């Protein structure tokens, strides 16, 4: 399950649509959702991720850092 979570996060954040956090909650459960949001918080606060309408997206200025940001969100 951990590998599928990591793959879901990686693939979604590499798109312009971003990651639907409800998908994480529904497919992987509360613990995975809590982990995602806890790990995303520093990136949201720093302006590297946006969290709007249940979607996490990389900001334009964070595109070059996407691999590092995405790996921070992995389990």
What features would you describe in this structure?
With 75 residues, the chain is an alpha+beta fold. The protein is built from 4 helices and 3 strands, in the order H-E-H-H-E-E-H. The protein has a single domain (2-73), classed as Arc Repressor Mutant, subunit A, CATH 1.10.10. It is 59% helix and 13% strand. A hairpin with a 2-residue loop joins strand 2 and strand 3. Helix 1 (2-13) runs antiparallel to helix 4 and helix 2 runs antiparallel to helix 3. The protein is globular, with a radius of gyration of 11 Å. It starts with a helix and ends with a helix.
* Helix and strand element order: HEHHEEH
Share in β-strands: 5-15%
If you average the pLDDT, what whole number results?
97
- Major β-sheet strand ordering: 1-3-2
The proportion of residues forming helix, as a percent range, comes to 55-70%
Task: Please supply descriptive tags for the structure shown above.
13% strand; Arc Repressor Mutant, subunit A; alpha+beta; 3 strands; three-stranded antiparallel β-sheet; 75 residues; 4 helices
What's the arrangement of secondary structure elements?
Blueprint: H1 2-13, E1 19-20, H2 21-28, H3 30-45, E2 49-52, E3 55-58, H4 66-73
Antiparallel strand pairs: 1-3, 2-3
Helix pairs in contact: 1-4, 2-3
Question: Summary?
Answer:
By secondary structure, this protein is α+β, with helices and mostly antiparallel strands. It is 59% helix and 13% strand.
